What does this fold into?
Amino acid sequence: MDALELLRLNLLSPMVLAFALGVLARLLKSDLAFPEALYTALSIYLLFAIGFKGGVELSKTPVTTLLLPALATLGLGLLRPLSSYFLARRLLSLGRVDAGALAAHYGSVSAVTFLAALTFVQGVGHRPEGFLPTLVALLEVPGIVVALLLAKRGGGNLGEAFQEVLTGRSVVLLVGGLLIGALSGEVGMERVKPFFVDPFYGVLTLFLLDLGMVAASRFATLGQVGFRLVLYGTLLPLLHGAVGVYLGHLVGFSVGGATVLGAMAASASYIAAPAAVRIALPEANPSLYLAASLAVTFPFNLVLGIPIYHALAQGMGG
It folds into this structure.
């Protein structure tokens, strides 16, 4: 299957098309809107299902198999906020606080981008490593903490922000789901499979429809902050994605696994990081970090980034 065919399949997937419909609906000023309670329910379902399925796979994975991928992921968790911070200072000429806020978003991870990458590689016939959701949980927190440490200069409460990250719903659901899946194993999975496996991609499609509307609502901000933020939101994911794919190749991942790790490294958080930044860096400009992560990097990865990381993984693994 060539690159153009992979790109066509990605663009015509229900998830990408649903995201595009959400963008179109907002641009046309449609009255389409998701109730806040539904958005919350969908995100809870997705995060728990990711963790649970990862835990089931973890129950079948020897610790020695997981050790190197875990170390590589922690390395990404340190490298990504540092590069994000210094690029924000150089390219965007931002102060420490706004640069740190951006670094927190690009140092953490987007669970939905992870899901989209997982769906893509499975759709083109790969079988990525089953413990990848464990790495999502590992990548979630360190990047935020490092970024806040970089930005911290007398304002906000770092301890409170750290607690917010660890007790936030994304970490609780991912880690809790992992533990439940690891303890209950395949037997437990068989009992809940009709709820957590079969409807999963339908729920993800609805979630992306809503995200499309949210992303479109940030387009106006992009016009205010300038083209350099668009460059930042596309070049940085390409750099991080290439490093992630390379590390995945180094630790022995399959092409599918290296692609997903690249997409994880290239993603930017818009659930855990905003909550932490609001507490630790209340003076940071939310228009910058939300517009960059949600209106630039997320759609870029969804449409172009994931096929690019797949091509890189194929080239390295080939």
